[in-house]
Amino acid sequence: MKKIAFLSPFRGLLLGLGVLLSACQKDDVPEFKPTDPDTPGTGFDINSISDTYANVAPLSSASLWGPYNVHDPAIIKADDYYYCYSTDVGYGISDATLTSGLQVRRSKDLIKWDFVGWVFNGLPAMGADFIRQNGGTPNKLLWAPYVVKVGSEYRLYYSLASNVFKLSVIGLATSSSPTGPWTEKGVVVSSRNTTTPMTNAIDPTILVDPQGQHRMYYGSAFNGIYMLKLNPATGFAETTGDKGRRVAERGYTGNRINGNIEAPEIIYNAEQRKYYLFISYDWLLTKYNVRVGRADSPDGPFLDFNGQDINIAQDHGPMILAPYQFAGHSGWQGTAHCGVFQDNGQYYMAHQGRPGIDPYFMNLHVRKIFWTPSGWPVVSPERYAGEDNSQVAATDLAGDWEQITLNYRVVPGYEVEQNTPDFQTSVPLQLAANGTFNGNASNTWTYAAPYLELRWATGTSAKVFVQKGRDWENKKSTIIFSGLDNAGIAVWGKKK
């Protein structure tokens, strides 16, 4: 086992830009001891959060990254803080320059985030050695972490890929604190470049079910999403060498797969008595979107909106988050690889968002999750801003809105083929006080808080959850809604 210190950003800067950190070399790196970012009198202006951040993008400004340079977030609550662990990437920073090892941020309110350092000060030795022993060169950077607390132990699962097609590992490190230091334990599951059907061993998420059983869901491309049973005492596979079994895959157009499938996230909602498996589709820079299936058992089958097993070769819905564009804004693309968590009964989704004006910027978005009357999760069309949770009065609904329907266009392929985000753009929606909308007497709406029901003359209907929110595009308070129509297509709204 290898002890790996938590590396503060300031220690990383002292090592110098462009220096390659040797794999798990045990330097004289102090344990991370953060200063309190919530010092009284400092204040915080939510309007200071911007879509682009070139002025603080360099590694020398890492202490100012806050919600910026975030990709593949995983969030856990520990004491008074939410901790966000994410892939080590940076706008305009080469892989050779970046620190080898998973960025960490923390927040007390899910809005103001403070960058506090890196998990490792080099590649975990056991994971890197496995790749070298199998003929590959490990990537310089780690991807897609997941952290779960078991008893008094924090277990951090990391993803390490290589220059060899499908040669990857998911490894495990543990700590008694969310800030480390971390002790590397070994490789949990691996994949190799063979003809044997197998997914890529990256993108882990962990479920501890009500019976105390542990499962890992993981995978990217190739053969879909896998589920692997773990030993609760160790965090490793229940059966040594087991890869698990597939629980989800994608559809095909002719002989071509419709796009990538990756980044599972699993939760159990006790109120709904269901297990929900969130999955990302498509290319991460452009069409990246989130789907969800649900099951009565953690072993599946996970069913889509139409009751179909998501493990059959077709695309599945509902799609609850996708690239979108409200009026007057460049839009957000690459909106997937989500982390789902709950606090005091409220569920949230964290994910990356890339602004349409320059999609190489990567911002942390956190959204509230609402639940439809039939038990499906949907997400807010706007990021969380600590908004008032009180119910919206019916008299406040009439007026001009923007509506977005998350339609979808299949573009088989990956980076080359999926070269545009396919933004779902807003259209005007006018709710009249007499219970009609868009000037058509056959379009009707009714409201029984918190649900607004829209009924179009075409036969489409949608019961959507209404709440107060923040208009991030125009920096003001507003009212929002989110739900699914009767065909399982997500419908969003924001009042002007």
Automatic annotation (TrEMBL):
Q: Which Pfam families match?
A: GH43_C, Glyco_hydro_43
Domain of life, per UniProt, equals Bacteria
The family this protein is said to belong to: Belongs to the glycosyl hydrolase 43 family.
Q: Which UniProt keywords apply?
A: Glycosidase, Hydrolase, Signal
Q: In which pathway does it act?
A: Glycan metabolism; L-arabinan degradation
* Protein name as catalogued: Arabinan endo-1,5-alpha-L-arabinosidase
Q: InterPro entries given for it?
A: Abn2_C, GH43_arabinanases, Glyco_hydro_43, Glyco_hydro_beta-prop_sf
The record's listing under PANTHER family reads: ARABINAN ENDO-1,5-ALPHA-L-ARABINOSIDASE, ARABINAN ENDO-1,5-ALPHA-L-ARABINOSIDASE A-RELATED
Annotated Extracellular endo-alpha-(1->5)-L-arabinanase C-terminal domain residues = 381-493
Instruction: Point out the signal peptide segment.
Output: 1-22
